[in-house]
Write a structure and sequence with these properties.
Oligomer: single chain
Helix content: 10-25%
Largest sheet: 8 strands, mixed
Strand content: 15-25%
Distance between the termini: 32 Å
Number of helices: 19
Shape: globular
Bound molecules: adenosine-5'-triphosphate, magnesium ion
């Protein structure tokens, strides 16, 4: 195993700011028990995961008459892969958890005091396996009333002329009077129908999720940066009759013609009968009479109270299409109980949330990270969540830090691509802002290079915060491998240990055998199901089985490579398709990229394998540079030599790239993930067979790369 990254001991002990909070009460649901890595069960129940159960009879109201939301879930899941399909034995009924939606869609609270009390202490064994000891306490663990919760909105700074109502979050008194969104009665949407959503990052998007959940409609949220073709395909795939959108959106100082994109998509979707349009900028947009309706007018027509639909735990909550880094996106289906349980518990334990916390996940609601960590997870725990519009660099690269300071954010969660971008633009942008409220910093989406991790720790966390590098997927619904702040010491670049109940295994890629013990590397799979596992691909269960269940029978196949180091810590090595094999050495892209980024001039890199007669494969590295780094563009050869030397030094001569290609930008998905397959195709001379590019953020990057590859020596 190439283990140059694996340090011999965890290097980052418990963060000081997290330590201070350890004894304070938490919010959110408790786990009654779970099964550990060795099959041993803790808590009640037998071989299954158990989630909190509360009686659905009593629905407390607060002094304003608002019905409090509660999570009624009991998940007992067991995967039977012998029949090819996972069977999930579940409880008969789960009530949708959206009571808090009334009367304002953004108020959402969670009443934890009904849970039987469980005192949990965590310790971790040598395989990085969570162990939980429980002791019943005589009195309830939570006696404090849940505070009222709000959503924070960070609108793009703009002089745009738009109506007052859409520029400011509603104040509570005003919000309490305004009616909730309900489209069930008027539009004929009932439990089990799909509703497509194509909305920018305003509170209305969050309200839309909760409104759908409340009436039992299955939402299919499409990232509002997608083209009309991508939107059309997704609407057609899930056959929605209702679409919710906005007139326009704002991103990076530009207006995006959201409604016009919708109109283009709907030309080929006659099945869409109603389009509900939220006014974001107030500019004039084309209107189809009879089909298009304004949000602010429609919400005046519906009553203040909309009873929540009773849902079965296995009823779908939403469909979400994957990022498409590896090919055509899949419409992943998540369920009401299991998904929500995963969302609630991971926010509680991975982020160590407390009642007054303010959670800020900077993803877009159109991705799974936004679904779980902007909308459902924080709100289930009753903590404030943040909806951030625009980009981290508009109008300045201090934008994130202005938001943290202004809203006193305690939890900040973003992707390595954003961290690398901000690192590239310099740490002075973090310095003018008070970031002292932050306790936990999260990373998700790609392997985080240790260099970027250190920058995040040093310049954002000021070495006071816990950093949680969280590995999970659209298909897993919630975080799977992660450190626990206050319990797990970290190593930069390692996602560390599994979450409760998760049993990751590392398989030999050829034999498919489980590689036991430490210091092993191979294919990452999951042995048993967990509550928030995706149940199917929408209307294509066979694709679900082919993609996840059949590659290594008996296991859920993640498509990622991973290593378990000598301490049982897990290191995600990137996608299995991206693994490079040079003269029998299996090289991970993540490792070579992390070596390259150590060079003072390098901003970001993407490494690929290209076939080679002599060695099987050889390494090509695509590199972008920091803006302030100066070099002679007529002599890229000298810089390339320096970079090759860097890899030889850090990993070894066998990993040295054969070619270094300096490019202005890397091809990325709209969620910021590097699409290595594009560079692989171009380098193999198959630039005309790039496949599905609908999820590519900036298509012009492809031509720049083609030109550079064609001229590179
Ligand atoms: P598609 O499945 O359509 O190719 P995608 O895999 O990019 O799209 P997502 O579900 O958004 O869609 O991404 C999950 C993937 O992101 C993981 O399989 C993994 O490759 C990567 N990933 C997520 N978090 C981490 C992390 N903390 N460390 C390393 N890789 C991560
Ligand atoms: Mg994937």
């Amino acid at each position: 195993m190439a283990d140059s990254q694996h340090q011999s001991i965890p290097t980052h002990p418990i963060a000081p700011r997290v330590k201070e909070h350890q004894k304070k009460p938490h919010v959110g649901p408790d786990i009654l028990g779970y099964r550990d890595h060795h099959g041993k069960t803790f808590g009640e129940g037998s071989n299954e995961w158990w989630a909190p159960i509360v009686s659905p009879t009593d629905r407390p109201r607060d002094s304003t008459g608002i019905v409090r939301s509660r999570l009624f879930v009991l998940v007992a899941s067991r995967m039977e892969t012998s029949s090819g399909s996972p069977k999930v034995a579940s409880t008969p009924h789960t009530t949708a958890l959206t009571d808090g939606l009334i009367p304002t869609p953004i108020r959402f609270a969670f009443l934890p005091s009904y849970y039987p009390s469980v005192d949990q202490r965590f310790s971790f064994g040598d395989h990085g396996v969570g162990q939980c000891r429980q002791s019943q306490r005589p009195e309830p663990l939570y006696t404090i009333p849940p505070p009222l919760h709000s959503t924070t909105f960070c609108h793009e700074i703009t002089n745009f002329n738009r109506p007052q109502s859409s520029t400011k979050p509603m104040n509570r008194a005003k919000a309490a009077k305004s009616p909730p969104l309900s489209f069930s009665a008027n539009y004929g949407i009932k439990k089990g129908d799909t509703v497509s959503v194509y909305m920018p990052m305003t509170w209305h998007a969050v309200a839309t999720f909760l409104a759908c959940a409340r009436i039992g409609a299955i939402h299919s949220v499409v990232f509002a940066g997608f083209s009309s073709e991508s939107l059309r395909d997704r609407i057609k795939d899930c056959k929605s009759r209702v679409l919710i959108t906005s007139d326009e959106s704002r991103r990076g100082g530009k207006a995006i013609a959201t409604k016009a994109i919708v109109d283009a998509a709907l030309k080929e979707c006659p099945e869409v009968e109603h389009v509900l349009v939220q006014r974001r900028t107030g500019n004039t947009v084309a209107w189809t009479e009879g089909r298009d309706k304004w949000w602010h007018e429609e919400t005046l027509k519906v009553p203040n109270y909309c009873p929540p639909e009773v849902m079965s735990s296995e009823d779908p909550l939403f469909i979400l299409y994957t990022s498409g880094s590896t090919g055509k996106p899949k419409g992943v289906v998540h369920t009401t109980a299991g998904y929500l349980l995963g969302a609630a518990l991971t926010v509680k334990y991975v982020f160590d949330v407390h009642p007054e916390d303010k959670f800020a996940c900077m993803a877009d609601v159109g991705w799974i990270t936004g679904h779980t960590y902007i909308v459902y997870g924080p709100l289930l725990n009753g903590v404030t969540t943040t909806v951030f519009e625009s980009t981290p660099v508009y109008p300045t690269p201090s934008r994130y830090w202005q938001v943290v300071e202004k809203h006193q954010i305690t939890h900040f969660y973003t992707a390595p691509t954003a961290i690398r971008l901000l690192r590239r633009l310099g740490e002075h942008h973090t310095q003018a802002h008070d970031l002292s409220t932050v306790r936990v910093l999260g990373s998700v989406g790609e392997p985080i290079n240790p260099e970027a991790w250190d920058w995040y720790n040093e310049h954002v966390g000021k070495r006071q915060c816990a950093i949680v590098d969280t590995w999970w997927q659209t298909e897993t619904g919630s975080i799977m491998i992660t450190p626990f702040p206050g319990a797990i010491e970290t190593k930069p670049g390692s996602a560390t240990v599994p979450f409760f109940g998760i049993e990751p295994v590392i398989l030999d890629p050829v034999s498919g055998e489980v590689l036991e013990g430490n210091s092993v590397e191979g294919i990452l799979c999951i042995r048993n199901p967990w509550p928030s596992i995706a149940r199917t691909v929408w209307k294509d269960n066979n694709r679900y089985l082919d993609t996840y269940m059949r590659p290594y029978p008996g296991f859920f196949y993640t498509g990622d490579g991973a290593a378990r180091d000598e301490h049982g810590y897990i290191w995600i090595k990137g996608r299995v398709d991206d693994v490079i094999n040079v003269s029998g050495h299996r090289l991970s892209t993540a490792e070579i990229e992390s070596a390259l980024i150590l060079h003072r001039g390098v901003a970001e890199t993407a490494v690929i394998g290209v076939s080679d007669d002599l060695t099987g494969q050889t390494v090509y590295a695509f590199v972008t540079l920091k803006p302030e780094f100066t070099y002679n563009p007529n002599d890229e050869g000298s810089l390339a030599k320096e970079l090759i030397l860097q890899v030889r030094k850090v990993i070894g001569p066998f990993a040295a790239p054969k070619k270094i290609i300096i490019v202005p930008d890397l091809p990325k998905t709209r969620s910021g993930k590097i699409m290595r397959r594009i560079m692989r195709k171009i380098s193999a001379g198959e630039g005309d067979q790039l496949g599905d590019l609908s999820t590519l953020a900036d298509p012009s990057v492809v031509d720049a790369i083609k030109a550079k590859v064609a001229t590179s020596p």
